[in-house]
Amino acid sequence: MTDAPAGARAREALAGLTGLGGFFSLAAPPPPGSDALPWADVLAAPALEARFHAVRRALAEGDGLPVDELDPKVAVSAVQVGLASRLWSVALGSAVLHGWVPDLGSASLLASPVHRGTVPLGVADPLRGYAVDDLPEAASVIRDVVVDDSLAALVSACASVGRTPARVLTSNATSALVGGARVLAAARPEHADRAWELARLLLADPVVARGGGAVDPASLPEGVGGAMQRPDEAFLRSGCCVFYRLPGHGLCPDCVLAPGRPEQVTPGH
What we know:
Blueprint: H1 4-20, E1 37-38, H2 39-42, H3 45-62, H4 72-98, E2 100-102, E3 109-111, E4 122-123, E5 129-131, H5 135-161, H6 166-187, H7 192-203, H8 206-209, E6 212-215, E7 226-227, E8 234-237
Antiparallel strand pairs: 1-3, 2-5, 3-4, 6-8, 7-8
Helix pairs in contact: 1-4, 3-4, 4-5, 4-6, 5-6, 5-7, 6-7
Protein name: FhuF-like iron-sulfur protein
Domain Ferric siderophore reductase C-terminal: 237-257
GO molecular function, one term: 2 iron, 2 sulfur cluster binding
């Protein structure tokens, strides 16, 4: 899985991810005394239920609502899309910029089990991962370790524990992939072509494609469709994140409901 050159790539990738900040952050390894736990424990029912409740309370307080007036599925969606965004961002950033994919499989992955914990995402061994020499190879590795493993476990756990339809969560995950490519391309414009090429390769995967895909913007009402790289493509998801149930939050531009309700789209969401 690793050799000396790959180890050098791993170190460069981790340093590069640190420079990107935000959802690209990866603790490798987490600092001593952190609250990081294995991915399976993070997704276990007791931890997820507590996390959903904490996020529901935070969202309700932010909007001045009693907790019981905020749809619990909004909190489930928020938790899941946040973790999915981190998985995609780390995988895309390290692969595109450094030819390296950290081992983000569920057996290697760590994270804080609580909302706003000290380790949003981490791995125990910073040198464990995959050197990838081209984008098709990167896409293949990411399918194996993220799409079919850690991300699948995240979707399954949130659907079961959070009693939220898998369609919502699958479309969240695919939308998060497009969002990760968009942020990476903006942060490193010299690598924008590679970021979007890798995103397109992943969108072609049947599992990822269940959550949405690129459509012709000319087929959509004005203001509908998530921005992609080219003027002839826009992203439309197959489900709804249900954030529109928050006060003052309309439909996202890429929402499955947006083509039929363009007047309800909130630009920039």
